[in-house]
Records
---
Amino acid sequence: MKDREQDFVSRLVQIARLVTRMDDDQAALLEDQIRQEYGGDRPYVAATNLEAAAARNRDIVSLVRSGAITASEAARRFSVSRAHVYRLLSDFGQ
């Protein structure tokens, strides 16, 4: 069996815990439910809608640059990391 640390379901639950206030019991329940429904299968994971992601990124840059929100607030509002916000600001030039 592959190392569970690199398991897709474990990573998915880890991400869910980062963006929610999920406690250990809830995380275990989520992981168990996913494994019961999809264990052994190769579920389809759709790619991000690139147009929607580009629009979101433009919104993030616009809001942060205008001073309407901070990078931390943008990260929370748009469910991205602060590092992602700073990369966007750097990529879009300051």
---
Amino acid sequence: MRDSQGGQWAWASHGGSVYQAHRDVHVNHLPLPAPPGTDPASLAARRRQADAMADSARVEEARAAYADMLDAHRQVLGPDHDDTLDVLGSLAWCNEVLNAHVHALDQYVELHRRCTIRWGPRHKQTLWAQQGLMNTVGVTRGPAEACQLGADLLDGCRSTHGVAATPTLDAMRGYAWWLWSAGRATEARDLYADLYHALPTHHPARTAAEAEYHRWRAVVSYPRRMNRLPDRVRRYSRSAQQAYRDGYT
């Protein structure tokens, strides 16, 4: 092609630069093409493939796939993009499932911080990240800190989803577990007692709430039922093991 003054332009054979014949050289470096598999469409396809691995219980393969594409998502889409946060959350979940709690904790901390800044502390994505954070904090730092996160999580789920919605019941179940781990089983029982008595008779969640309420009542009355049987007791008959759980031996 030609410029406005009649000079002939031609592409250089390397470096993406352009020169003008019979004139001074003008270097104009063009952006290099993205590496294969890192454009938005390819990243979306890779993410769907990793999701399929996770859904089919191939968690180790899914973790490797999510870890491999996380940096590309951050560079191409940005660290706060929906898809980037989705990959980060999926990677944290895989690490949690595979008992890599230290790595999961770092990822949940980052995810919760970014979701809070972007959507606020009561958004459903932020609450999901907080639930994962509660569980990994409980494993790595102890149940006391997990209970603090769990109390705030349950309040947030109640205000966002409702008192008997599935995310709220999931959060309550996890919070109750950490309460028991911290030696506060009576508080877990009271959570379900309040829920059970607050729901109408024909509410679809009332049966599950009643079952959990009676379960935690039994835990409070017979604390050995939640503990692993000692080796010596495991050699007993089933009736003797049950008697031990019920506190008779």
